[in-house]
Amino acid sequence: MGCIQSFRELCDRPKNTNVRLSLPAVCFVWQTAMIILFGVFIRYDEESDTHWIEHRKSKNISSDIENDFYFRYPSFQDVHVMIFVGFGFLMTFLKRYSFGAVGFNFLIAAFGLQWALLMQGWFHSLDYTDGKIKIGVESLINADFCVAGCLIAYGAVLGKVSPVQLMVLTLFGITLFAVEEYIILSLIHARDAGGSMVIHTFGGYYGLAISWMLYRPNLDQSSRLQCSVYHSDVFAMIGTLFLWMFWPSFNSAITDHGDGQHRAAINTYLALASTVLTTVAISSLFQKHGKLDMVHIQNSTLAGGVALGTAAEFMIMPYGSLIVGFCCGIVSTLGYIYLTPFMEKYLKIQDTCGIHNLHAMPGVIGGIVGAITAAAASESVYGHEGLINTFDFEGDFAKMVPTRQGGHQAAGICVAICFGIGGGIMVGCLLRLPIWGDAADDGCFDDEPYWELPEDEENIPPILEYNNHMRNKDVAESNFTMEQN
Asked: Is 0.85 surpassed by the pTM of this model?
């Protein structure tokens, strides 16, 4: 108990947001380390190397158009836009934290994709003949996927951590992601093309666990800034629309060429459309005057894409995709109305962006849908060759049957949750140390500590606040009170 008390006293020391030495040191040292590690390990794969022409002749490939670049690059472009524009602008809803939302998203994504190429390369694409990691366009997509898990976690602690803490969060998040991805996809042999389990479930619970460890009992001192203004919500909606439009590419980006990729795009497209209608319906239904809540429209409308990530390439059928989207719109919107305030008051989890409702819960639902769909697969629906191709029943898993595959899919959910919560608690303990330059409780959700602001933005007069960045938060007798006991 004495050690715990000493640790708490150490963590409660006064905050100092000056990162003039720590942030440049982390950026310079870690980027230098990336250069060295890339020089030692990273090389072009056979389709991006100058020996491609020889490879083409040896494999009787008739044209350069057969290079994987021409199949994957359009999807890579879409996923890349989602990472840097979609996620970045989605988090600009806070009225005084837009620089931090977009700028720090940019920073950790740029660092994370480099570290991800190394970590995923060591697990998935290491050439044991020469000890080198061979990368191509699919490696870039997977690196963006890896970064997405950390950006999801960032949403839980948005406005409450320093850029140095975010770099540490990303360093360990990428490492944990690579390990749990290898366990789920390679050892357990679960299928998760769009990352409902590997990306969203892991990233969601990783961020929530960190937020729980970094709980701020006096965060209400910054409540005047934990809200939006009209234009900040419009900018956040730009992020929503980019994510919503490109999500079919996200879920289909690394699926097999041909029917799998085609089917994944169709299924995601339909699920997203269905989610919008149920989100609007629930948002209006639970307001006294039937008005729509912009928080729900910005976030819950994306939940269908999250939930269909695992089963995107399965034969879930178009009506099944609509059902998944329908259910997720309801669950996610009710989560924002009921669960977010409940978790803050009783579980001490301060979830700034509501990632539990957009990523964690829909991710678990997606994993369950994937397990059920896999277990119900049959040759009459998939065909013999289609069943083998869709679930990769080859090599060590050649004798796998659909019912057993369903069990492996369920096991993947458990691994993602365990890695997310366990890893988040450990990283959260590290981030609690008062050495990272995070703001005090009364300085959260504000760009001023870390950014040079235009002169007319340096001092703002107090304005009438509205709860959870909403002006008319008049849910019909449903909100928990947020006062501290």
From this structure: yes
